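Loading example: each entry is read as two labelled lines plus one structure line.
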Amino acid sequence: MGLAKRIIPCLDVDDGRVVKGVQFVNIRDAGDPVEVAKRYDQQGADEITFLDITATHHDRDTIIHVVEAVASQVFIPLTVGGGIRSLEDIRRMLNAGADKVGINSAAVARPEFVYEAAQKFGSQCIVVAIDAKRVSTEDEATPRWEIFTHGGRKGTGIDAIEWAKKMVDLGAGELLLTSMDRDGTKSGFDLELTRAVSDAVSVPVIASGGVGNLQDLTDGVKLGRADAVLAASIFHFGEHTVQEAKQQMASQGIEVRL
Amino acid sequence: MRHVAVIDYGMGNLRSVSKALETVGGDDVSVKVTADPEKILAASHVVFPGVGAIRDCITELKRLQLDHVIREVANSKPLLGICLGMQALLSHSEENEGQDALNIIAGNVRHFDIKPADNGKHLKVPHMGWNEVHQTSPHTLWKDIEQDSRFYFVHSYFVDPADDAVTAATTAYPDNFTSAILKDNVFAVQFHPEKSQHVGLQLLKNFLNWDGQS
């Protein structure tokens, strides 16, 4: 026995409220991030990730209060991503009770930011979020993926595998890898992408984007070789609990925290 | 009433530690996050947390003159080192091209071996996630915590004490390393009890109920 594979529910938070519809039976307010986080904690979530999608800069303080409130009641690791652009942003999140921060577009704009952040706060709290899209054509023998920004709309010309290695070299302690082809499709992770990145780097990789059922989570670990799997909608709508997901993974020989 | 001091030297997430201690302590416990030597020395229990790099840690402790305070605490009352706070208690760390630490527990802090194994797979470092903590012998600090319970880890370096007798728990990644140390009134853990849900809170509760002797 050894290190368990992790299941991480992800909550999109807009101006202090959970969006994309979270529904639980017997929960008073499914939009309250604290209530939702507590529910996932009870179900056995290994960590919780908050993605702040608040559009305007001046409303960003609300996510700080969310993190403070959750960290006072939920004693598992918390990651916050979205709008992290400066060392000061990171400091404020960590002081509020976050354990890790996710850096995405700020890393694309200026890769050295990842180095500075890791030097300052330690690699263990720096998660680089990578949004990748398949760009190889059908007749290419080996698949290629490229980094995209702006929710998958804007290509960068940067090769995803090379980028992943570079981020780790600069100090990323973990990678959150999202397939922009699969995100929202419920057709499963891009397992080839997940495996290619996981095999290329020495830090843990979280697979994200495309989970439609429990088998997808198991496949992400077994076939994609992910160290952790992140999902939103299959948990939000009460289709499945984290506990069910773990039991399913355990039944297929994956080590989980039950 | 127990008074807990959480040592604040500017390294990491102290809010979670103090909230977790308040949660398990209830009305019987007051928790102060402080860098004030007087308050730390006046406390009944002291928690020495920390995340980040060892050089910054030792530099800050010295600047705030907390290195002497921690040594004094280590000789007098229940002390709980967490993660980097554990590593700082050892003699020396490999991190930052080598750094002398507080030398309260003899031994070294070493990096996980990340060379690919024979099967070509490399060990993922940091060691991040929930792993089993194997208690080497029963102790009041492990009260109501099942053998091999999973705690949350996130670290790239681990402690290698000179005297095996101080090892209170081991964890496999993939080889066994010391994940908890117990020496007299000093208890130190590599994992994060404040992030380890029920078992973590139970461990903090046990620490608050510990007199540092039994």
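The interface with chain B takes residues 1-6, 41, 46, 68, 71-73, 75-77, 94-99, 119, 121-125, 173-174, 202-204, 227-228, 257 of chain A (CB under 8 Å).
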